[in-house]
């Protein structure tokens, strides 16, 4: 067990750890329902990161995550922090360690620490000073604080770069892009997990769309889909489920409300399941009853852009050229000013590589998985989009979100 003191969570008195959390105590809980891959699969990921770090002349990396963005931590360790901040220290050679203040009730075993295979775990008090002390101890033990040691950092969201550089008296170099490149190509076992997440998502989308009719509230549809995802095996939602109807659907990212849908409404849905930390992302737009001429025009055009550009997708395809072609089609249809083209990789985060946008340098590669969502959004009319998730195969792409694309 770690000798670092642990403090209770908010509203709790300081107390000692009563339940051991060393690896031998955690192994009892590390079954297939908890750990989606073999320990060897995780060790292979760590080794791939270490090889890349050595090739780039780095002596070690600090990987950061928190409750809002824990995908990098999850990918390496399966640990999902409940709050606070988490760091994984990866020396270019040797064993990794986790340092985190995500501890509820003063008990690591009440706080997801039982979900990780990593032997060396270091809970700390819930404050930055204790976190930095724990991190410094690990870095020192692994000889990564020496003057000539080159350290990289990964995990943009909430990373306290200036504070750490000051406290460690060491310049940290950004290693996000290199880490994302390693994470972008999914292993066969990851593909299988993501297929499950996409099936759960597709089934829930079908159920929700079939329930849409005049008089039904946005919240009712969201509840149907959320319930379907959880009963279908999801461990969480990839993000909050969006069901937005009427003119407000042009605001796109909005929570569902008690608004009752009306005949003639456009209804925008964006949702996804999380399964063992792997996420799906799927959108559909439909109308309550038959669409009017303006609605049909933008729905058809958004779908046509999607269909035409998906045909360009295969290993080696330029993501920028795909986006450029989408915008060219929008310009031909005179809807360019209301068109937004985007694509983003999926895995243990919603924003892996590839990125499909103009001017990016990314190219598609076999076993990348991504969401693709060219959309047309005239303000006060609605969001017209078909968003689906794709797996890059040897010669093209396979659609993983298997539900009707055209619902109008």
How would you characterize this protein structure?
The protein has 408 residues and is α+β, with helices and mostly antiparallel strands. The protein folds into two domains: 23-183, Creatine Amidinohydrolase, Chain A, domain 1; 188-399, Creatine Amidinohydrolase. The protein contains ten helices and 19 strands. The chain has helices at residues 23-26, 39-55, 71-77, 128-141, 161-168, 176-184, 188-210, 218-231, 293-310, 319-332, and strands at 60-66, 85-91, 97-100, 121-123, 151-154, 172-174, 236-237, 242-245, 266-271, 273-275, 278-279, 282-287, 339-340, 343-345, 352-356, 369-372, 375-376, 384-392, 397-399. Strands 8, 9, 12, 13, 14, 15, 16, 17, 18 and 19 form a ten-stranded antiparallel β-sheet that branches. A six-stranded mixed β-sheet has the order 4-3-2-1-5-6, sandwiched between helices. It has a three-stranded antiparallel β-sheet with strand order 7-10-11. Strand 10 (273-275) and strand 11 (278-279) form a beta hairpin. Helix 9 runs antiparallel to helix 10. The protein is globular, with a radius of gyration of 23 Å. The termini are far apart. The model is unreliable at 1-12 (pLDDT under 50).
Question: Which ranges are low-confidence, i.e. pLDDT below 50, for 5 or more consecutive residues?
Answer: 1-12
Can you count the beta strands? 19
At the fourth level of CATH, the homologous superfamily of the largest domain is: Creatinase/methionine aminopeptidase superfamily
| Count of structural domains | 2
Helix-strand category: alpha+beta
The portion of residues assigned to helices is 25-40%
Q: What letter string, H or E per element, gives the SSE order? A: HHEHEEEHEHEHHHEEEEEEHHEEEEEEE
Q: Choose one word for the global shape.
A: globular
Distance between the termini: 59 Å
Describe the largest sheet: 10 strands, antiparallel
So what's the CATH class of the largest domain?
Alpha Beta
Strand content: 15-25%
Number of helices: 10
- The CATH topology of the largest domain is Creatine Amidinohydrolase
What's the mean pLDDT score? 94
Overall radius of gyration: 23 Å
CATH architecture level-2 label of the largest domain: Alpha-Beta Complex
């Amino acid at each position: 067990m770690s000798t670092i003191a642990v403090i209770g969570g908010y509203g709790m008195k300081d107390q000692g750890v009563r339940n051991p959390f060393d690896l031998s105590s955690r192994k009892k809980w590390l079954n297939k329902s908890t750990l989606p891959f073999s320990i060897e699969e995780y060790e292979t990921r760590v080794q791939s990161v270490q090889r890349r770090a050595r090739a780039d002349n780095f002596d070690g990396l600090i990987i950061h995550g928190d409750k809002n963005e824990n995908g990098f931590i999850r990918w390496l360790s399966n640990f999902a922090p409940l709050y606070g901040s988490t760091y994984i220290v990866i020396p270019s050679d040797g064993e990794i360690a986790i340092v985190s203040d995500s501890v509820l009730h003063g008990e690591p075993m009440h706080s997801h620490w039982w979900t990780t295979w990593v032997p060396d775990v270091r809970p700390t008090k819930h404050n930055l000073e204790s976190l930095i002390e724990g991190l410094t101890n690990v870095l020192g033990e692994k000889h990564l604080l020496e003057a000539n040691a080159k350290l990289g950092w990964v995990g943009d969201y909430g990373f306290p770069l200036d504070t750490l550089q000051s406290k460690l008296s060491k310049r940290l170099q950004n290693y996000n892009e290199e880490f994302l490149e390693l994470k972008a190509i999914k292993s066969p076992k990851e593909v299988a997990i993501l297929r499950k997440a996409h099936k759960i998502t597709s089934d829930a989308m079908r159920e929700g769309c079939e329930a849409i009719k005049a008089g039904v509230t946005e919240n009712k549809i969201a509840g149907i889909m959320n319930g379907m995802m959880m009963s279908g095996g999801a461990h969480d939602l990839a993000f909050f489920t969006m069901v937005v109807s009427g003119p407000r659907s042009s605001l796109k990212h909005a929570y569902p409300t008690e608004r009752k849908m009306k005949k003639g409404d456009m209804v925008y849905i964006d949702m996804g399941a999380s399964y063992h930390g792997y996420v799906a992302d799927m959108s559909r737009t439909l109308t309550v009853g038959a669409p009017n001429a303006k609605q049909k025009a933008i729905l058809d055009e958004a779908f046509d852009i999607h269909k035409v550009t998906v045909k360009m997708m295969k290993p080696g395809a330029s993501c920028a050229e795909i986006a450029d072609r989408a915008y060219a089609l929008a310009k031909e249809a005179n809807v360019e000013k209301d068109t937004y083209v985007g694509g983003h990789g999926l895995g243990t985060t919603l924003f892996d590589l590839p990125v499909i946008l103009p001017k990016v340098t990314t190219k598609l590669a076999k076993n990348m998985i991504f969401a693709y969502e060219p959309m047309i959004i005239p303000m006060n009319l609605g969001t017209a989009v078909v968003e689906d998730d794709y797996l890059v195969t040897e010669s093209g792409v396979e659609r993983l979100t298997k539900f009707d694309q055209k619902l109008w």
